[in-house]
Amino acid sequence: MRRSIRTGLAALVLLAGLVARAELVDRVAAVVNNEVITLSEVERRAAPELARVDQEATGPERGQKRAAAMKKVLDTMIDEKLVDNELKELKVTISDKEVDAAVEEVKKSYNLTDEQLQQAVSREGFTVAEYREQMRKQIGRYKLISEKVRKNVKVSEADVQSEYDRMTRSEGEDYEVHVRHILIAVPRTAPQAAVDEARRKAVALAVEARQPGVDFAELAKKRSEGSSSSDGGDLGFFKRGTMVPEFERVAFNLKTGEVSEPVRTQFGWHVLKLEEIRKLGMKPIAELRPEIEERLRRQQADRLTSQYMETLRNAAVVEKKI
């Protein structure tokens, strides 16, 4: 966690700029629980983005983009005020040692000496002491969000499998599926009563197959009327265009481990279970698991952070003036 805090601080503090000191006489941009955010603070924080807009846009578009940039920065600064207030309420303190470590991480990330860092801070119009104080606030904000969110981040094996399947399918249709099935045989020309009876059997088997602890392969060996029953209904891997259309349409839309509703073909009623999907040439899930888990944790953390910030906003009195 400490390393992620320091890395985030480097980007926030040196690339986005420091939070500016309020002028003695200034227009109020927002009031957050009786604490003021001044317009000059917002303009200073938004300066890099405003400069980019001025270079890339003209006419009415420039004005619209400048206003959007100011609004985005103001919303960020309001959220920071809310987090700072929460830190005060919870009496969270940041030690000098933590600040020292974060400053060293910034110097290391940007290959700066003490003198070069001091010069960079001075160019922004701040002293090193003021820079350290802003660093202290940023560390506190990261620690609070991490504590409130981290304990609720949970990524299951099912989540990883689902994401792996999504990745496989998103690459296009050039992938294979590994399917087992149970067949209740009924000819295409069979009387309707026989077709309906076969379907009832298939429905009952689908329900049974979904029960916890049921081994689909064993169930297929005992109940399937197809030629693959001795192999537990195993059809192996196959691509699109291999099976009859009705069967294939269901097979390629199942999730891994999912058991289908009965599907009718000229052979009878089938109950399918998707064992695995794989993209030709794609790395196996075992190799991609760490990467997938990290991405899912990050996405979940972002979502939970947004929910936490929404809770703070709802509990606060916020008045925007611009």
Task: Write up this protein.
The chain is α+β, with helices and mostly antiparallel strands. The chain has two domains: 2-154 and 296-320, Triger factor/SurA peptide-binding fold (Orthogonal Bundle), CATH 1.10.4030; 157-279, Chitinase A, domain 3 (Roll), CATH 3.10.50. Helices cover 59% and strands 13% of the residues. The protein has eleven helices and seven strands. It has helices spanning 2-15, 39-56, 59-90, 96-109, 114-123, 128-150, 157-170, 192-209, 216-223, 245-251, 285-315; strands at residues 28-32, 35-38, 175-185, 234-238, 263-265, 268-279, 318-320. Strands 4-3-6-5 form a four-stranded antiparallel sheet. A three-stranded antiparallel sheet has the order 2-1-7. Helix 3 (59-90) packs across helix 6 (128-150), helix 4 packs across helix 6 (128-150) and helix 6 (128-150) packs across helix 11. The longest helix has 32 residues, at 59-90. The protein starts with a helix and ends with a strand. The relative contact order is 0.13.
